[in-house]
Amino acid sequence: MGTAWSRPLRLAVGAVTCFLVLAVLVATGTTQALDVEVVSHLRPRDAWGPAQVEWSPWMSRLQPGRMYLLLAATSAAAAAWRRSWWPLVFGAVLAGSSAALTVLAKVALDRPDPHGWVATSGGSYPSGHVVALLVCLSGCLLLVGPRVRWWLWAPVVVAATLLSVSLLVSAAHWPSDVLGGALLAVAVVGGLSSLSLRQRAVVPAPRNASSRGATTSAS
């Protein structure tokens, strides 16, 4: 079991390291020139054109509220199917930790978005949209069973691509914000999936536990 969980744990450590390095680069303004160049290319003169009309709806379709609701529904369904509270606990820890870390990072950097605006919940880095989407969709897959086939990750990659393009074309986030959100999500998912909590969430409760208890009591 230790060997099986070593890969996601290593992935989480690597993602955390890259996220912190990128955060320092963002805070010192090292990424700003490249960020501005990319956003200016995707949305010239901050104009709203056909590309923005085509891509921007994906921001609302894949908004964090819907993603966290999907994770909650999947956790509840898994809990009912397996007759265990652990899927709900795993889903709640995923959602809570990802949201808390995102807000902490946003408040710490307090970075303005491409339009110069800083929300009351914190700055633009990292993208909360990207964090929520990757954490929630990955969490849904991790609740399906002990092993997730590689091809099941394809819809997650497609959804993340659609959302990332929409955020950049609409100039809702800097490219480094999107990359930071992806790194933070990988760190959270990799770290939590390496814990015994996830294993408990995917193992069904013994079906005959209650009957054994009743038999013991009667005897």
TrEMBL record:
Gene3D superfamilies linked to this entry: Phosphatidic acid phosphatase type 2/haloperoxidase
Span of domain Phosphatidic acid phosphatase type 2/haloperoxidase: 88-193
Pfam families linked to this entry: PAP2
UniProt KW keywords: Membrane, Transmembrane, Transmembrane helix
Domain of life, source organism: Bacteria
InterPro entries: PAP2/HPO (IPR000326), PAP2/HPO_sf (IPR036938)
TM ranges: 65-81, 88-105, 125-144, 151-172, 178-197
Stated name of the protein: PAP2 superfamily protein
